[in-house]
Amino acid sequence: MLLGGQAMTAGAQASPYHASSPLPGCCRATPVTPPTVDTLPGLLRVVRHAAALDDLPATSRRFVLGSHVLAGALRLPQDARTERAVHLLAEGSRPAGRWRTWGQAAFTRQAELDVAWRNQSAPSLRSAYVWADSVGGTFRSDHLELAAALVSPAVRGFTVALPVDYGLGQGARRNDPRPLYRRRVAEVAPAVRLQRGAHQVGVGVTQGWHREDLEIGGGTSPEVPVVFRLRGIATFDRTQLISAERALIGGVVGGHAAYHWQSTRWAIATGAMVRLERDSVRDGIAAPVSGGSTRRLRQDLRLLARRQDGRGGVELDLRGQQEISRGRDPVFSAVNAIAEGRRVQMITEWWRGTSRPRAAWLIRVEGIWHALERRDIAADAQWAATRFPLAVSGGHRWPIPAGALWVELGASRESVADRRRLSGRPTRLSATIADPEYALMAAPVSGARVGLGWDRVRNGALTSRVAVSASARRTDGPLFDRRQNLAAQAMALTVELF
Amino acid sequence: MFAYSPLSALVGRPTASAVLRSLSLLAILAGCSDGSNEVQTFAVDVQVTLPETYGQTAAANARVLLTSTERNVTDTAVADAQGVARFPRVLPGTYVIASSLALDPERAFALTGQRTALTLNALDPARTILSAPPSPFVQRLSGSRLGDLVIKEVYYPASRTPSGGTYFSDQFVEIYNNATDTVFADGLLIADAYGPAGQINPTTVPTPLQSQTGSVFVSSIWQVPGTGRQYPLAPGQSLLIAQDGIDHRNDPNGNPASPVNLANADFETFNLRPDGRDLDSPAVPNLTRIVHRGGFDWLLAVFGPGVVIFRSTNVAALDSTLVPGTTATWVTRVPNEIVIDAFEALQNGNSGAYKRVPAALDAGYVFSSGTYTSESARRRLATTIGTRRVLRDSNNSSADFEIITRPTPRSFGAP
Question: How far does B110 lie from chain A, in Å, by closest CA?
């Protein structure tokens, strides 16, 4: 859901449109900015529980204009070499009588340069069944995401919320065989909260639908294109075609439960989420045949605890996550493509100041244990790696007459243990996808980041922010596939008005 | 196979029952493993036996190729002393099983009493294996002698014109002297096997002559002219036979997008007709037309031809026969014994059932990625002795040939 996740970070996209993947964005440097709103540990943060919308200010509005560039060779083989995007976002909340309303609209225009082995939108990489050709090229795409939530007044301690998300987008490659996609996503997540004194309990369910229509073919080249139907990290079939259609149709069901307790100085929230997504690929229109289906099960546990007083505070964010993806092959009619990820993450923050967004000093330590595995049974291909990212960052704010200047500096180091690889029946894709993926996942990475910003404050309220951030990541040495010292960079510029 | 929810479009609204069903399914699936099985592998044994007339039964050291028609991946195993080749991890699917055994003169003498090197082959063109077979698949070998002349390259898929049209006049066949002595090409016969190369149309069926494995049935036959010593081929030299002997890239009758210049071909197949539709290139001598049962020129099937070269002291005496089930389609029977070399290409990896050349002559086949792709089938290099290239010849096109992206007439360079 956009709710909550979007409220915490400017410009970042955290919607079903950009849902999780078995392969995390391990290799991209991502821009960061500190939060503009201090959301206490509660149901909204821990599980994005919409009925806890009162964790946010009752009346607010925000407009964001942002741009980012991600570039570098440190990337997964189906990622773009360079990604440029412009974001526009408008968000606001206001009471409607005793009810509360919240809404958001986000537009992204994006260019992905040198995309190879993926002729559809990136979220579909959660599926192993991807159209591709060996040519690659530049994709341009537009995405619009709309979200709204309606929250009832409390009746005998019960509050009900109905958030709705809808996203649509389309993208196309500029060169033959000119693949294009149109994608639509919708999700509803009704939620109920019960509040008794300092205690809150919330439960909610999620139902979603998504559909991506794909076309390929056309162009002016006399060469008949060879199109690959990927069926795993090394299994594929290929065919020559003039034009063809494909649809990826899927849905999601999920649920969550969470608990929150708050005292004068303490706030504790814990919650669990489960999310089951299914995708089916359908080749052709007149006589559709299966192109494979994928089932992903994601389970999350999270604990947030904060102690805060007028001088500062400390917050602990502990998360556990497991995601298992199983792809049912259209030829073997059995599970062939398997991806699994398990992750435990602990983030600790200390700050000095009246609130976290306006802290004079902030120190953040983040440690992760992350086990990843991908298998392709037909190709007898498999890789696994356990990564240990550790990141330390610090921030400082200087009050100035019109507001504050802030800076954030950070460094990270990702070590790797227990790396394994098997390639029993190598195919052309083994060296193209499976090996580069493993090479990156098995590589130690070092990173650094910096963020600078100016917050303009009037009458004690934040009215605007201008922020720029940059980050870089680099591997240590020769990778498994003999590439040397891959690096990636990210830059972002954001202007926010409140 | 498709998603369980009514997800065909976002216009559909979820019903209460759909939500309840989804939630109950979630509760079940969240707590247990996936409901579908993983792809299973199993062991497959192939029992390779020698021909019935040989002194032994088990074909020890026979090489067995198991090729997946879906994935176009080949696994290889060598038969043990009992003639059993084992493939320990086979995926369900349809496979081409091809066995071959090369006999040097000494081993051939021990088995047959004749001191002549030969290669034995067996082929099962389409074997569907879905689970562990209860008993080994049996392959009985049959054989033919190895040729001194081999088919080096067959450029059959042809090309497209710049406007996307089709152009097939640039096809060629190249014959290569793979022996250590000079061979005279005079009198050499070349022919194309009768039958479709695959499921071209929904009603297409394999040739009914498939079961007659002692001969290859051909449509057209052409012959190299000469008195017997006019066209010597030194070791490593080749004979280039064009459909039309012109520079296809620059000739006004050609195709600027063609990949070949065949103006220097040794021969072309000129089909003299009253309508003069087949042009005769004055610079390239013509093959002698023995039998032509085709269109205006000797067009090899762009979906995949079978080609044989052979010698006969009395080609006119070869039997002609009516194809069963037809009223006017005649073919010529070429006995396996007089065939020097054979090549076969089919439409795709699933076309094994359409094979036309008997396994004793050619136990495999190749296939291009499509028609009019400018690809070509070229024989692989076995070794190089001095400057002479020795080409692979196991009487199995699957193993001996590779599909290259561009034809290489008179060359072994990169396409």
Answer: 38
Q: Compute the nearest-CA separation of B43 from chain A (Å).
A: 14
| Per-residue model confidence as pLDDT tens digits over A256-266 | 999 999 999 99
Report helix, strand or coil for A53: helix
Name the band, by pLDDT with cuts 50, 70 and 90, for residue B284: very high
pLDDT at A482 over 90: no
Q: Is the residue at B30 inside a domain?
A: no
End residue of a domain, out of B145, B170, B188:
B145
Residue B410 lies in a domain: no
ipTM: 0.70
Q: In this predicted model, what pLDDT tens digit does every residue of A368-384 receive, in sequence order?
A: 999 999 999 988 899 99
**Same-domain status, B303 and B158:** yes
- Cα separation of A255 and A299, whole Å? 10
B24/A contact by beta carbon, under 8 A: no
Tell me, yes or no, whether B107 and B174 share the same domain.
no
Render pLDDT for B194-226 as a digit per residue (tens, 0 to 9): 999 998 888 888 999 988 988 999 999 999 999
Instruction: Please indicate if any CB of chain B lies within 8 Å of the CB of A322.
Output: no
B4 interaction partners in chain A (CB closer than 8 Å): 251, 278
A144 and B CB contact within 8 Å: no
For residue B240, what are the CA distances in angstroms to A490, B292, B384?
A: 58, 20, 21
Tell me the mean pLDDT in the region A16-36.
Answer: 51
Mutation test of the interface with chain A: which of B29, B71, B167, choosing the one with the most A Cβ atoms within 10 A? B71
Q: Residue B25 and residue A276: Cβ atoms within 8 Å?
A: yes
In A284-380, the DSSP E strands lie at 289-309, 312-328, 335-352, 361-376
Output the CA–CA distances (angstroms, integers) from residue B72 to B60, B352, B365, B402, in the order listed: 27, 12, 12, 12
Chain A interface mutation, best of B4, B22, B74, highest count of A Cβ atoms under 10 Å = B22
CA gap A94, A110 in Å, rounded: 31
pLDDT attached to residue A16 = 35
What pTM, to 2 d.p., does this model score?
Answer: 0.70
Strands B267-268 and B238-242: parallel
Concatenate the DSSP letters of all residues of A259-291 into one string.
Answer: EEEE-SSEEEEEEEEEEEEEEEEEE-SSS-EEE
Q: How many structural domains compose chain B?
A: 2
Q: Give the structural domain span for B49.
A: 42-145
CATH code at A5-497? 2.40.160
Chain A: closest CA distance from residue B1 (Å): 7
Chain A residues in contact with B92 by the CB 8 A cut-off are 332
Boundary-marking domain end, from B96, B116, B145: B145
